[in-house]
Each structure stands twice: as structure tokens, then as C-alpha cells.
């Protein structure tokens, strides 16, 4: 208790384990440090914007909670090993979703509460060249047209509404906006947006840094597989939903009314052969991919969705499950999983919400201690993984630097570019 922290003994006071007594305490120190930093940030922000302070207060509370968990774990002698049930980023050596946290309501989208539909998140490619970038992409008020979005270089920048820039897909300023997209199935993957091109059965890719847009028609037999014929239940124009997971870029589409999953080549936009699921797309409220497994959700009521169905493209097997998602507002407009932070990103009636995902350990296939068998695999996988991640990260560092240069260039070249420069709010 705090009674140990009398002013007279403050110099040597250990404040009940807040100050680490071993290297296990490293995490608590880090958390304390973060809390202090944020407290300082809040103090300097006071008077700027009440909403931001509310958001940051929430972050502080989250960190406090984490700190408390750490302390409890240390006190119980359990150590920190059990705190994170998550495998390392990019690792698929787990048994699927165990649970999803309570929602974290981050903020309202930058266009306001009238913009109910849209999508948001962090770059969804493992080893991406823009690892810290967040995007917020509200649809226009028609809840169909994808036109303007904001890109933020960090979570903090997102919180304080300080984007890199505001961009428009309507680069030719055309009233029909043929370069725009439709529906909230859009994602940001390895520094590009991937989305269903406006009014067409085609995939588009937009690179905000070069302002280049490419498109590729989807060859398919089903004449009614775009333009709101087979969206998800309760939301419009998500006939084509993009997803990025540990295995790459995916498209969730439809054939004969059923959901189909196809791998997308991010460079050429070429599609692999489809996996056909047994679920009617019209019956599903949304879907996302984790490690090549499609998870589908259903609306339960105005406060809950449920993850009820999974299709594993690794084994072509499906199964049912029941994991509830608590949502702050009634309509889940889009839902995507990010393999880089193992979070689900939901655009919830204009509000930005995320969830942490925890995974089950992989079930051992042979007799003997499961842990030993699995950790043997882990060490091997972990090694090759970290090498890949390392080189990707140093590439990303370089990319970040040249990215700054390219923005410089786009700033100075006039004409085709319709990006509007943002004035910082602070
Ligand atoms: C860690 O978690 C495992 C699995 O949930 C459990 O069996 C074990 O007892 C936990 N260890 C401690 C020290 O709490
Ligand atoms: C991201 O793009 C870079 C080149 O721009 C490429 O080398 C890398 O493989 C890409 N990563 C993914 C996950 O597609
Ligand atoms: C699924 O969709 C079919 C046809 O669209 C409909 O008949 C059925 O009632 C739906 N099932 C559920 C559980 O919503
Ligand atoms: C919605 O469903 C969930 C899960 O069954 C339940 O816990 C919750 O109370 C329900 N909420 C309302 C408003 O009915």
C-alpha cells in the first residue's frame, strides 16, 4: 500500500514494486515511463482540444490497467510470460482466435458524425514500407463513393488530427470520379490503397506518394457481383472487401451468392483461384482474414456482433465459433484485422474503434508435452522470421526517408495532383 511511501522515506521508497526489483520489472518501468510521458503531454495539451484530452485520458487508463496486471503477475510469482498470449508479429503458429478485447473507442472520423460509413486502420502488410502510418477513409455522404482520405504518420498524429496530408482519389477532378472507389472494403497495404473501383467490377490500387492509380478488371462469371448486389448485410457497396494478413493481400467477393476468398497479387492485382465458402455473403455482416483464415461476423443486436464462422484456406476446412464483439454504436460499417499489431479495426457509424485479439496456443498433433514440441518450431521460425522482419525494417527506414523526398516533389509539381495540404491543428 502507499503507506510505504511516507515523505520522510521517499528517497529510498520502492513504492510497492512500481520500481523494478529485477529485469522482470523492465516492462513496468517502461509502462510507468509511458504514463508519465502521456501525463506531460496532456498537461501541455490542456486548452487545445477537450476531445483529445478525453482520448488520451483513456490511453492513460489503459496503461494503468496494464501496469496493474504486470504488478499482479509479478506479485503472484507468475512472471510476465503469461501476460501476452499473442505470438510474435507475423507468426501463424497458433490455434486461431481465443478472444477479442473490449472495444477501444479512439475518436470520431475527421469529416464528422454525418459520415457514417468508411474504413480506417494502420498499414496492413507485414514488413510494410510504412509501418507507422494510419489512414482514415470516410465514404462520401452517399455511403458509396470513396473519394478523400487522410494519412497520418503515427498514432499520436491521428489522435491530434494532424495528418501528413488530405488526399483525393479524384485526381482528374472528373464529376464522375472514375478513379474513386466504392464501398468501405478499402484497405491500406504496403503504402497503397486497394479498393473496388467506382461503378465497375474491377480492383484499383492508389499510391498516395506517387499519386499513381492502377486498375485491373476481375474476370468472373457472375454478372451481379458488384454495385451493391452482394454487399454484406446491413451495409452498402461492399461487394468487394479487401483484407491483409500474415499471408498477404486478400479479396472477399461473391460467387452464386456465396462468399469466396481470393489471394491478390499486390503488384499486378492478379487474382488466384477462389476458395468458395458455404456462407451466403448477404447473411454476413463483415469478414476479415487472419493467417489465411477467413472469419465472418453476424449482427446480434445494436450492441453486439458475433464472429460465428471461419474458413481456413490452409486446409480448405470450415468451422463455427462464437466470439462476441461489443460495439459502441449500432452499425459496424467495416472490420479488418491488422497482422502488425494483432488488432481488429472497426469503423463504427463514423467512430474509429479497435480491439486486441488474443490467440489460442496451437493444439499439439502428437503425444508428449505440447509446449516442448511447439517451442522447438517457434525457435526455428522465430529466427528466420526476425531476419526477414529486420531487413524489411531497414528497407522501410530508407523508404521513409525517400518518402519525405517524394512528398517534397509532389508538393512542388503542379497539375495532376489534387492533394490538399493540411494545416496542422496545433
Ligand atoms: C500460465 O498460463 C498457463 C496456460 O494458461 C497456465 O497453465 C499456467 O499455470 C500459467 N502460469 C502461471 C505461473 O500462472
Ligand atoms: C512492399 O513493397 C516493397 C517495394 O516497394 C517490396 O519490396 C515488398 O516486398 C512489399 N511488401 C509486401 C508485403 O508486399
Ligand atoms: C441467409 O440468406 C438466405 C437467402 O438470402 C435466407 O433465406 C436466410 O434466411 C438467411 N439466413 C439467415 C440466418 O439470415
Ligand atoms: C445483445 O446481445 C448480447 C449478447 O447476446 C447481450 O449480452 C446484450 O445484452 C444484448 N444487448 C441488447 C441491447 O439486447
UniProtKB/TrEMBL annotation:
Highest taxon, organism lineage: Eukaryota
SMART domains: OLF
Region named Disordered: 391-426
Keywords, alphabetical: Secreted
Primary location class: secreted
GO CC term (a single one): extracellular space
UniProt xrefs under InterPro entries: Olfac-like_dom, Olfactomedin-like_domain
Keyword Secreted among record annotations: yes
Pfam families registered for this protein in UniProt: OLF (PF02191)
Compartment list: Secreted
Coiled coil (residue ranges): none
A single BP term in Gene Ontology: signal transduction
Segments forming domain Olfactomedin-like: 91-361
Name used for this protein in its record: Olfactomedin-like domain-containing protein
Phylogenetic lineage: Eukaryota, Metazoa, Chordata, Craniata, Vertebrata
